[in-house]
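lol so apparently i was supposed to do this last week
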Amino acid sequence: MSGLDVYDYCSTYYRKETMISAYKENVYPVGSKENWEVPDSVKALIVYPPEGRIRVGRPKKNRCKPHWERNAKTFKPIKCSKCHQTGHNRRTCRNPMKNK
Ligand SMILES: [Zn+2]
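anyway here it is w/ zinc ion bound
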């Protein structure tokens, strides 16, 4: 690693120059609400509350996985015990030769 500049491996966001340039321009305070200049297009906007019921408690973080993802390591396609073909089981078997 000798002879290499550590800043070549770091994002420019972490550099001092970037931080200084962020505050180089003037930042004006918003002021009191009476002095706001709100455009008519913004005044015309009406924000409605969200549709539907708001559920109690923390929202679910995990997605409901389909059966082939639940145990991907041990997943085997279903196999018919009558005709031994994959993709259906004995109840939905449509193989007429061995369907007795
Ligand atoms: Zn079958």
